[in-house]
Structure formats: C-alpha cells, structure tokens
Amino acid sequence: MEWGAIFLHKEEIIQKAEAFCKEHRVNRFPVNVITLCEQCGITVFGHMLPPAVSGFIVIQEEPFQDFGTGHLIVMNSCDSAGRQRFTIAHELAHYVLHREGNEPIYAHRDAGQNDGIEREANIFASNLLMPTALMEKFLRGLDGYPQSVLADQVASAFAVSHEAALVRLDQLGLIGG
Length: 177
Ligand SMILES: [Zn+2]
Known about the structure:
Blueprint: H1 10-23, H2 33-39, E1 43-47, E2 53-59, E3 71-76, H3 81-98, E4 105-110, H4 117-129, H5 132-140, H6 147-158, H7 162-171
Parallel strand pairs: 1-3
Antiparallel strand pairs: 2-3, 2-4
Helix pairs in contact: 1-4, 3-4, 6-7
The structure holds zinc ion.
Residues 90, 94, 107, 109, 118, 121 line the site of zinc ion.
C-alpha cells in the first residue's frame, strides 16, 4: 500500500498521542492497549508469525481470512509480552496517524524498521505506552536511581521492554543519550 509521503514532525506525533490518551482517559499504568484498540473497534489476536514479523494491522470492510472481522491487529504470540504490547501500540498508531478517511489499511511490523511512517508509529507507540504525565508521576519517587535501574523500574511498571523504557527515558531527557 502507498502511504502519504508527508511525514509528521516528532512534536506533532507526541501531541497526537497525548490527545489520544486524553480522549480515551488513559490515566494509569500499565496502559491497557488492548482496551484502547477495542475502543477503536479493532480486535487484537495473538498468532504464531515468522520470527521477523512482530505483527500486522488490517482495516477493511470484509472479514479478513478466518478472523471473522475486518478490523484487526495480529501480534506474534512468540514475542515477549513487552514486545507484543509495543507491536499493538505501533499498529494502533498506523490507524490513528496514517488512515486517510475510510481507506483500508494493511501494514506489518518487521524487526529493525524505523524510518518514515514506521518511525512515526514507534514514537506514537512509545508515548501511548509511557505517557509523559504518568512517567513523570512514576519517576518522581525514583530520584537518584542509576539509569539501568530506572529503565528496569519503568519496564516493569509500564509493562514494556527494557529497551523501550530506555528509549522513552532518553526522549524525556531523563537519562544521558
Ligand atoms: Zn508499522
């Protein structure tokens, strides 16, 4: 599928993620990303996918294969829980950021993709799973902890991978990049 080639600024993506969190009353962690998908009319499935594929989203009128719905996100059930959650948030980001009107969406997330719309979806996902306000609240109690401990604490509280926690802490300027 051809996506619109006009890329969003990072700040714009963060604003959209914050607006989405506000609209859907995201006010505690770990963020229930499956419920957020359901609120958008999207059903989440776990499925065994090839190791290089984290998941995909399909938005179309007619049911997709034997899933019984045409609004779905499939995550690789072989991935770790943290990675699965990031994949769901990433695919939901395509729905929120990249859908044009009622056009269908087909996108999949592969290991190592991080440019153009994939980068945009990753920024949105990171801000959705670790919203600024909730992160600040959580981190207030952890002043003075070493970086790796901080990342571990965030990873376990927000149910994300250690790596995703590090990226988000860096984005927030809370650890040295
Ligand atoms: Zn993607």
